[in-house]
């Protein structure tokens, strides 16, 4: 998914500033962002006070939206650099096209994983004949220095491993959960999982104490470490946890996001993740000049022009404002 804001802010992120050594309970407030064609999302990362969770650097949550009489998601071709995109649905379908020639319809609980590396472009849209509801999340993972200039790739995993225990079921997108390992390619120690909590369950989910974590609530009403959460909210949990208490009355689901704190300092602007303002400026110029990012064929519409760069220099600073 693209950041379609016409005046996107430059976000300095990464580094260990602001990563506590122990557990916390920090509720992150979303911003409502319009993607056009009647689609709005809740942007939960980056947000005021929190820029990353492990290597996770961008989280949009959308729906459930009734799009029976609407075009649904319509995100024109746009570029990416220095990151992975993770497409995740609870309802609906998203048609992915990219400059590698990939064409794939993604459905609920299927993983679309795009590694941009040095440069790629793609589009995302609801198919012309689509279901009534659209509900999901779009997430980005920052690539470390050793992988950020790798060649672009697209992965689709129609079936994913599942970890189960009393009162819960965890579908593993990236990394490992309780012995279940995702086939998705990861470049840093990371975890992403979609966890269904049964009605009345009292779950203790095992965690890695060296990871920092957050949860994004998707459906139902859940209680995470004694904090009641409604759908569309995100709770940052910090580090130092060996288990996570989860409860639900009526059943619910959430996404667990975590990983080792990302030490490198980054500059994120629009759809690019780099290390310096000069890299970001060069990427923008390449996209506008038709270089490097390739062409997305088959999308019925124009590609997305890059916004103007801000007047101030783009500099990496730290993890929190």
Characterization of the model:
A hairpin with a 2-residue loop joins β14 (162-165) and β15. This protein is 4% helix and 50% strand. It has one domain: Jelly Rolls, CATH 2.60.120.10. The chain contains one helix and 25 strands. Strands 2, 14, 15, 18, 19, 20, 21, 22 and 23 form a nine-stranded antiparallel β-sheet that branches. Strands 3-4-5-12-7-10-13 form a seven-stranded antiparallel β-sheet, with no helix packed on it. The protein starts with 10 loop residues before the first strand and ends in a 32-residue tail after the last helix. It is mainly beta. The radius of gyration is 19 Å and the shape is globular. Keywords: Iron, Metal-binding.
Quick overview:
This protein has one helix spanning 277-289, and strands spanning 11-14, 23-28, 31-36, 39-45, 56-66, 74-80, 83-91, 94-98, 103-106, 111-115, 120-125, 133-142, 153-157, 162-165, 168-174, 176-177, 180-181, 190-197, 202-206, 212-224, 227-229, 234-238, 243-259, 265-269, 272-274. It has 321 residues and is mainly beta. The chain has a single domain (11-259), classed as Jelly Rolls (Sandwich), CATH 2.60.120.
Strand-and-helix sequence, N→C? EEEEEEEEEEEEEEEEEEEEEEEEEH
| Spatial extent as radius of gyration | 19 Å
Low-confidence stretches: none
The chain-level structural class is mainly beta
| Gap from first CA to last CA | 24 Å
CATH topology assignment: Jelly Rolls
Organism: Actinomadura harenae
Cofactor: Fe cation
InterPro entries: Pirin, Pirin_C_dom, Pirin_N_dom, RmlC-like_jellyroll, RmlC_Cupin_sf
Pfam family, one: Pirin_C
